[in-house]
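Reviewers of the previous submission asked for a worked example of the structure-prediction workflow described in the proposal, so we include one complete record here. The input consisted solely of the amino acid sequence. No template or homolog information was supplied to the procedure at any stage.
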Amino acid sequence: MLKAAAAKAYQTGLALFLGAAFVLAAPAVQARGTPEPTAFSSGLETIALSDLPREGRTTYARILQGGPFSSDKDGTAFGNRERILPRQPRGYYREYTVRTPGSRNRGARRIVCGGQQPQQPDACYYTSDHYSSFKQIVE
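From that input alone, the workflow returned the following structure tokens.
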């Protein structure tokens, strides 16, 4: 009987602990933001085109126009080695430099777009930290 009481107390304590952990973790999950539904939803956070830095909006417009671009690397295949973006076949994604004022090199900011036709991408993503994180660009 003592064993049964101890087992019941353990289960109750465990349930309370797990319940408290869930309640405490919930605000952190909600704080990340829920992606807005899009035609091609990646599940990543989103950023409005109007919220991109000025240089990002310029790069995005050039992508849709087919150039000109600021770097020879612009428009080249992006390998998605970090596996943050949705999995696609090699060559699906292309990367473009978002100029960083005062930087002597390409800097860390990029737009990566996916699709078969570069000027009509299925989806584009912005990173300000050289591929460590991405936000899907929404218009």
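The first strand starts at residue 46 and ends at 48. We consider this example representative of the routine output the project will generate in years two and three.
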